[in-house]
Write a structure and sequence with these properties.
Layout lengths: L1 H12 L3 H13 L3 H10 L15 H21 L6 H11 L6 H15 L7 H20 L35
Length: 178
């Protein structure tokens, strides 16, 4: 928890994003997956953080980093041929609650599924998990969220589609699992 507080203090301090990133990145690397999830829930993105174009703020860079880390852990779970798809979808909904990044999640899951579609070493259930989760995320983006039981679900415009791909970030995080 100390690492989370140190990162939050640095985010609150403001300043030049690149200089602040050099201080924040090693702290992010040291977080466990549970701490990364907790940190993501504690960061509130403002209007400047959610711009589709222009320089990304330090908060946005941190959130993108956390999204990449959660995606790596989630994809690892998708490759379990015995995982219950309903449990997997519930896990995806819990991890990827930021609607602005759901479209990017869907696209990346589909790319991973396509890349492994004809791999004979991978069970068909894994391919089904990946394509199913990509479709679920894409539907959530179009419908404005995960919960169809909420009044107003599917009304209005989809949220803005912000990308959190590792290639889009200037400093891509290391590979993580769990």
């Amino acid at each position: 928890m100390t690492g989370i507080f140190a990162i939050l203090r640095l985010l609150r301090a403001g300043g030049e994003a690149d200089a602040r990133w050099e201080q924040v990145e090693p702290l992010l690397d040291a977080l466990s997956l549970d701490e990364a999830i907790e940190l993501d829930h504690r960061i509130t993105l403002g209007k400047d953080d959610l711009r589709a174009h222009g320089r990304r703020t330090i908060k946005r860079r941190v959130v993108e980093y956390l999204q990449q880390r959660k995606l790596a852990a989630f994809v690892y779970e998708c490759f379990d041929p015995f995982v219950n798809p309903w449990v997997l979808e519930a896990r995806m909904q819990a991890l990827f609650w930021r609607l602005e990044f759901i479209r990017s999640l869907a696209d990346q899951l589909e790319e991973i599924a396509e890349a492994h579609k004809y791999d004979t070493e991978i069970p068909w259930t894994v391919s089904g998990n990946l394509f199913g989760m990509a479709n679920s995320a894409l539907l959530a983006w179009h419908m404005g969220g995960w919960d169809e039981t909420v009044a107003g679900y599917g009304l209005g415009e989809p949220p803005p589609a912000l990308d959190f791909r590792a290639g889009a970030a200037p400093a891509a995080p290391r590979s993580w699992v769990g």
